[in-house]
Structure formats: C-alpha cells, structure tokens
C-alpha cells in the first residue's frame, strides 16, 4: 500500500466532517453487500438492458492503475492550413470523492471539484500544432486530520496549474516531434490518471502514429509534475535522489496487428539511478463475433546504474493474463512473480503489472500473486451504458529476511455508467470500492476499505 504524507491546514467545518464521516462509515457496510447484488444483477441483466452491444461496442474495462499501453507520439491525419481551422477547445469538469478507512492508520477523506480546459490548435501550414491545458483541483471537503487523498496538494490545499503547453511539428506523413509540457502514456512513464489531475511531463519526443503497423517512439524527459502538485521536479529527484537534476531518456517500438494484437518493447534510463526495460506480447484469438480469447504476457527488468544514488538492485517482474470474452461477459485469470532483488520502481507513474488494481500493484520483492476477475456489460440502461468489473488478487511475499513484507489480498468492484443521451451525453459516472487485507501476524500490517465516486463530463466549446 502507498502511504501518502499528512501535513497541516484545513478549512472544512466540524459539522460537515461529522456528517460525511458518519454517512460513509455506514456506507461501508452498505457497499459490502453490493458485490453479490451486482453479480445477481449480471445474470438478470438482459431483463433491464434495452439493446444488445456487439463486440465493437463493448465498453473496455478501464483500470487507471494498470497501464501497459504504448501510446504513439507522432501526428494524426488531420490536415489544415490555418491556426484555428479544426481547432478544439474542450472543458472537462471532474468531481471526485475519496474515503479511505484503515484499521490502524488515520482515516483519509476528501471531495474535490475541478478538471481541465484543453486547447488544441489546427495545423498551421499543415506543419505546426499547439496545445495547452489549464487544470485545477479545488477543495469542497478536506479536513486537515484526513489529509493524504492526493486529490489536493498536501495540507490539503487546492491548486491550479498549466499542466500542458506544447508544440507538435509534423516532419512528414504521420512522423512528428512534440516539445514542451505534455502527457505521456507509456509503461512506467505516464499520466497515471487516477485522481483529479494526471501526471504531466516536460519533455521532447519523436515518433509516428500509424494506427496498425510499426510505431516508434523516443525522447528525453526533463521533469514530472505529479497528480497532487503544481510544481515540476527533475526525474532524478522524483525517483528519490534529492539535490539532483537529471532527466530520463527513452525509446521503444510497438507493432499492432489488424486484430488488435500488440507487441512492444520500451527502454528507459535515468543516469546514476536505474534503467527499466519492458516488453509485452498481447494476442487476440477471435472465434466468433461474440467469443474471443485474449492472452497477455509482459516482462519488466530493472537495474541500478552508475552511482546508484537510490541503491544497488537488480530485479524483474513477469506477468501474464488470460481473458475469455463471451458476449457481454469477460472472465479473466492472471499471475505474476517479482524477483527477490528488489521492489519494482515506479516513480514516474503507470504500473505495468496485469495484477495492479485500485490500491496495490503486487510487485514487491519476492512477491507471487494470482488474480481472478469478471466483467459484465449491461448495454443501454436508462440514459446510458452500464457495466461493471471486479477483481480479486492474492499476494504472497517472504515471511522472514530483509525483504519480508505482509501477505496481502485485495477485492475491488467498479461500476461505470456512461450517459449518452441529450444534455448528459459524455457524462461518465464511476463508483469504486476496494477491500484490502494484510497478514495480521506481520508487524505494521493494516487492513483498509477504500470508496470513490468520480463524475466526468466533456463540453466541446468550439
């Protein structure tokens, strides 16, 4: 589990604290009964669904704490000659409530309102495109004694920041260079968008954007702005080497086939700290329009290098997953094993273990993990499309020795309702809950319950 820092400051009234705490403490027991309810509802789902979704219409399970994607850096096919021709201005409001109750540690809770205002220009002379995002997270509820939600700056304190400000230059075709503050979405180097504002980076990247086929990406990343901060800090400092100012270099290739099978390799280096090599093979076997098998395998290797400013280590992670898709349902099993040489380092976001879920990544030194999961797409229900997915993961770690840590298990449930009618089109409501249990015999272990409500809405202003 990750333990966020607790600092000082508060503006919330005691009466509000008491009311919210009471309602969500009671809600913990109520939500505990929601899993069997949803599973029962799954088998009766066809009674309330208004239409049948086909394979291409299925809502993808979106776990923001698990990211093996290798997003392209190049340019798209849109062509224009003038700055405002084809320009986009999108307001993306978001509200987020998080409540986390530990058996031992202090409860954490917060409610934020904010989001982002994104601008993308047209392609001036079909060569240059500019982009910028103004992001904010403001406190609706966040008592000092319940800080640590990462919805705000430590304190808790609301903040605003120009999270993106970049230029993309088309070299030729779909090949381009992107320079400035920007979002990256790569394994172990990405936006990790699971609070109000995603991670962003000061970087320069080059690549292409072919869709299917071979894509390449390479670049230099100077600094990162974390999801709960308005400051950019160097990549080496973010990794734990205080007083340093080094960046990170990366390169990778990814091949995507027409059936959505993907193969890729990515390498990252932070001088005098460590390097990371990630490789994956994700194969899709389609048996009919309603039935398919997804087989995924990934490998991560990390080694300290140079002056080894954050320690001497050499470790690796192997992760695999099988998913059986049958109509509206998806069944999955997964397993991973982490070498005893050290924990997997993730200071730049985007954990890439197929078993990473809401709270835990299950990639501690010497950890073996196994998971089962289930998803169901109800199709159109009322004003939107309703779906759910649940995962259960068990992690086993050494009980003694220098890398000993408590065995842990985690049960998660996510319910998504994506509205698609009238004024509410593009509204996305997400409810999430996680139950974490650690081995009580291990010193420092702590069970917890985590509950979240997230509402997103996109407005096209141009």
Describe this structure in words.
The longest helix is centred in the N-terminal third of the chain and has 19 residues, at 14-32. 8% of the residues lie in helices and 48% in strands. With 462 residues, the protein is mostly beta strands. It has a single domain (14-460), classed as Porin. Strand 4 and strand 5 form a beta hairpin. Mean pLDDT is 88; it is low at 1-59.
Compile the SSE list and pairings.
Layout: H1 14-32, H2 34-43, H3 45-48, E1 88-102, E2 108-120, E3 128-141, E4 159-172, E5 175-182, E6 185-186, E7 189-190, E8 200-208, E9 213-225, E10 233-234, H4 235-238, E11 248-256, E12 262-270, E13 274-286, E14 291-304, E15 314-326, E16 329-338, E17 368-381, E18 384-396, E19 408-419, E20 427-438, E21 448-457, E22 459-460
Antiparallel strand pairs: 1-2, 1-21, 1-22, 2-3, 3-4, 4-5, 5-8, 6-7, 8-9, 9-10, 9-11, 11-12, 12-13, 13-14, 14-15, 15-16, 16-17, 17-18, 18-19, 19-20, 20-21
């Amino acid at each position: 589990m990750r333990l966020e820092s607790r600092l000082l400051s508060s503006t919330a009234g005691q009466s509000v604290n008491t009311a919210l705490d009471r309602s969500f403490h009671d809600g913990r027991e109520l939500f505990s009964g929601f899993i069997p309810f949803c599973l029962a509802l799954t088998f009766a789902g066809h009674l309330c669904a208004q239409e049948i979704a086909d394979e291409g219409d299925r809502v993808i399970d979106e776990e923001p704490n698990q990211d093996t994607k290798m997003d392209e850096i190049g340019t798209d096919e849109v062509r224009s000659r003038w700055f405002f021709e084809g320009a986009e201005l999108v307001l993306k409001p978001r509200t987020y409530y998080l409540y986390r109750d530990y058996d031992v540690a202090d409860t954490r809770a917060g409610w934020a309102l904010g989001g982002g205002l994104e601008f993308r220009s047209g392609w001036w002379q079909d060569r240059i495109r500019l982009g910028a995002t103004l992001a904010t997270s403001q406190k609706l509820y966040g008592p000092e004694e319940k800080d640590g939600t990462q919805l705000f700056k430590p304190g808790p304190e609301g903040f605003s920041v120009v999270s993106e400000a970049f230029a993309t230059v088309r070299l030729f075709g779909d090949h381009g260079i992107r320079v400035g503050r920007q979002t990256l979405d790569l394994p172990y180097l990405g936006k990790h968008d699971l609070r109000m504002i995603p991670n962003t980076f000061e970087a320069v990247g080059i690549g292409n954007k072919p869709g299917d086929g071979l894509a390449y990406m390479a670049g230099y990343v100077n600094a990162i702005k974390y999801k709960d901060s308005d400051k950019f800090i160097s990549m080496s400092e973010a990794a734990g080497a205080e007083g340093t100012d080094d960046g990170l270099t990366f390169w990778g290739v990814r091949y995507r086939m027409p059936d959505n099978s993907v193969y890729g390799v990515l390498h990252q280096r932070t001088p005098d700290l460590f390097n990371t090599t990630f490789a994956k093979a994700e194969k899709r076997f389609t048996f009919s329009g309603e039935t398919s098998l997804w087989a995924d395998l990934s490998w991560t290797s990390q080694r300290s290098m140079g002056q080894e400013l954050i320690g001497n280590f050499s470790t690796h992670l192997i992760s695999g997953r099988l998913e059986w898709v049958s109509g509206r349902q998806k069944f999955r099993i997964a397993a991973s094993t982490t070498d005893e040489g050290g924990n997997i380092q993730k200071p730049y976001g985007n954990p890439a273990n197929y078993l990473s879920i809401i709270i835990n990544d299950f990639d501690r030194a010497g950890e073996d993990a196994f998971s089962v999961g289930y998803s169901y797409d109800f199709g159109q229900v009322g004003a939107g499309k309703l779906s759910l997915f649940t995962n259960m993961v068990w992690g086993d770690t050494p009980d003694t020795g220098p890398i000993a840590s408590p065995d842990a298990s985690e049960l998660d449930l996510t319910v998504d309702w994506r509205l698609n009618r009238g004024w509410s089109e593009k509204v996305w409501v997400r409810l999430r809950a996680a139950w974490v249990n650690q081995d009580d015999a291990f010193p420092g272990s702590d069970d917890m319950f985590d509950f979240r409500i997230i509402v997103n809405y996109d407005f096209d202003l141009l």
